[in-house]
Model the fold of this input.
Amino acid sequence: MDVLGHPERRLPSIHIGGTNGKGSTCAYTAAELEAQGFQVGVYTSPHLVSVRERIVAHGVPIGEEAFAEWTDFLKPHIERLDASFFEATTAIAFADLAARGVDVAVIEVGLGGRLDSTNVITPLVSVVTKVALEHTDYLGPDLASIAREKAGIAKPGVPFVTGEQDPAVRAVLCGVAERRGARPVVLVDTHRAPTGPLGLRGSHQHANAWVALAALNALPPPFGRPGERWPASFARAYAPGRFDVRGRWIFDVAHNPDGMEVVVQTLRDERPPRPLHALVGIRNDKNWRPMLDRLIPEVDRLMLTVAPSVAPEKRWLREEMASWAATQAGGGAGAGAGAGTPVDFEPDFARAVEAVQEGAVSVLVTGSFHTVGDALARLPGFAPVG
Done:
């Protein structure tokens, strides 16, 4: 940031963290700010198909030439500091959004909060959507530890908003925020009845919309405060890969058990035409067994695969997955509530994409960002960025 002249200090910003719901909350927040007439920048992660998706200003992703030029300029400093990929892209994001003259930036936390690269900003409001078990090797073994890390984005004198509903976890978030001098601390009732349509599907989006509204209402002038009802702009919010229905295809990222629970509930709410087949790929460093156990009763066929963009050391092992699939399909010991649902493991991604369509009226693609992104890239006309 020093090398770049601290562009993050010239950007009024909103900082949004949490285990799940960050991307959707960013989408609602950005949609309303745009509706108010502001030029809005958005930085999110990870991307689905192209790294350019992460950095958007005025609704337009960063250009290829601009990304290359920022990378070329920063390369010696990236190497000197041994900066990570995320640290480098975060620096490029702040530089690009400032250069493109946005009025306000919506910034999504990458991982955790306290030590996240995005935490160099002092935002207008800090947000933690909710907390669930994730990245325990980095963030701590329990919800309280993870909450402490996520609340590390709280800043002195800056409003802190959270939609966490668990009293014990909420107490940890509030305690950290108060000790860090955040004012006021805003607790959002995410169980309120909806007050309008939303652009993103699923009842879980109600909570994200209420959190976004609270964040918007905590902003200082000149940013307008929408009031107590969802603004009309929330119906125009869009985030690719969040129960993203395109014809018979449904793309929904679910990279932890809490996320898969949301997918299952949304399937029940939306009731896509059957037969419903699911193409699923999850990194082996995730708690994938309960995720698959939760999904299998809801679908008519489960096709497990390995996304080509996943690093080799984080890919499912053929022997392990073949054994798990055989156990489920055979209804033997260890089979879950979906015993009898056909389960296949096809590590060749291209073949899996073809095979999962056979006999399906609807096809769900879920699991990691890698799986959803690689499928979007392979299917004609579906990639978020051209």
About this structure: The mean pLDDT is 94.
